[in-house]
Q: What sequence folds into this?
């Protein structure tokens, strides 16, 4: 690991501890409230940079995850409704991933509950249509569905293998000419930010006949001068990671996009906050002359297919209601430029992916999790 990244990670570990409180709970930022989500995000940061936390926290967390997952399996009367609840499925999938690290016995003990609840025997054409529609959040839906299938398949002696094969075939057959999903003439930010989730599953499964080169070329079109990939200036934790995940899939792509990867690396490191954490974007607030000029230029010089998308973000984000980034994770919402555990995790994973692709680091230096979904290699 290069010294500049090593220094950055040391600073991030200091920020991590600032979010860890005397009651052994994490808050998303040092000033916000604790939640079941922030506890998971704190663990994921610590696990990825290989920072130890008290054993008592691990015990509390795995018990909390176990109880919360059982609760969420009782929220809806059928699995289709649960799959459409992003906040609940997000927690379940991250929780399963954490249990893979902390206690695989608990992970395996939950299989019966999932096997009984998720009745996948009947083909659901409506679900298939949604997963491949390319609409916002349908990539999450598709990934959630695949994660549950793979999880059950692992602990049920490949009982679900044919359904996973069907999932792969459905997504391969329905790809558009950009390598993603949806009826789009030109490439835009939504396609890869949404479609990244399916590529996460392709990567975990080592799915054959996937045109990673096409997807990477399409992602490249969305990049900014400083190597960012969001429809607004300054990048975004999810947008940048999703793009880099695809751009660094193999040696051929690593070499082809080396200059872009270096630009992304440098801009993320330079935008790291002084407290050691990372934020969504340091360039959205305040709405001043710099924002107006840089945002206007980002829009006016947009490639085909992205002008409308970037203009909508440029204008919308000026509204006072967007002074904070609103999520279901906490009651107190974070500011755009405020360091938080979610963006810190995503930024560090992005930097790790880049450095591994450039030969500056190795996979073994990082806490990737051998479980489908975000955080696996």
A:
């Amino acid at each position: 690991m290069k010294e500049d990244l090593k220094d950055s990670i040391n600073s991030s570990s200091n920020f991590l501890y600032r979010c860890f409180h005397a009651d052994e709970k994490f808050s998303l930022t040092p000033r916000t409230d604790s939640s079941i989500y922030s506890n998971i995000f704190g663990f994921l940061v610590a696990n990825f940079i290989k920072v130890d936390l008290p054993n008592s926290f691990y015990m509390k967390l795995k018990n909390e995850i176990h109880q919360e997952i059982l609760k969420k399996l009782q929220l809806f009367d059928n699995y289709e409704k649960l799959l459409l609840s992003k906040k609940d499925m997000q927690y379940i999938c991250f929780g399963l991933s954490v249990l893979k690290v902390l206690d695989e016995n608990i992970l395996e003990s939950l299989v019966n509950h999932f096997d009984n609840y998720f009745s996948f025997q009947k083909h659901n054409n409506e679900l298939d249509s949604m997963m491949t529609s390319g609409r916002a959040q349908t990539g999450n839906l598709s990934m959630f569905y695949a994660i549950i299938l793979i999880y059950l398949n692992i602990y049920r002696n490949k009982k679900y293998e044919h359904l996973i094969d069907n999932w792969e075939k459905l997504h391969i057959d329905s790809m558009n000419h950009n390598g993603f999903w949806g009826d789009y003439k030109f490439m835009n930010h939504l396609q890869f930010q949404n479609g990244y989730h399916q590529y996460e599953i392709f990567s975990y499964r080592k799915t054959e006949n996937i045109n990673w080169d096409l997807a990477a070329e399409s992602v490249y079109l969305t990049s900014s001068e400083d190597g960012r990939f969001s429809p607004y200036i300054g990048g975004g934790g999810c947008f940048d990671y999703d793009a880099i995940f695809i751009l660094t899939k193999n040696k051929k792509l690593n070499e082809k996009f080396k200059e872009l990867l270096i630009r992304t690396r440098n801009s993320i490191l330079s935008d790291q906050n002084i407290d050691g954490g990372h934020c969504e974007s340091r360039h959205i607030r305040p709405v001043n002359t710099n924002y107006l000029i840089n945002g206007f230029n980002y829009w006016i010089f947009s490639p085909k297919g992205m002008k409308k998308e970037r203009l909508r973000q440029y204008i919308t984000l000026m509204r006072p209601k967007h002074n904070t980034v609103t999520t279901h994770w906490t009651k107190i919402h974070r500011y755009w430029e405020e360091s938080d555990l979610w963006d810190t995790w995503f930024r560090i994973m992005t930097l790790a992916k880049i450095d591994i692709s450039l030969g500056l680091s190795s996979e073994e230096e990082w806490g990737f999790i051998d479980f489908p979904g975000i955080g696996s290699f």
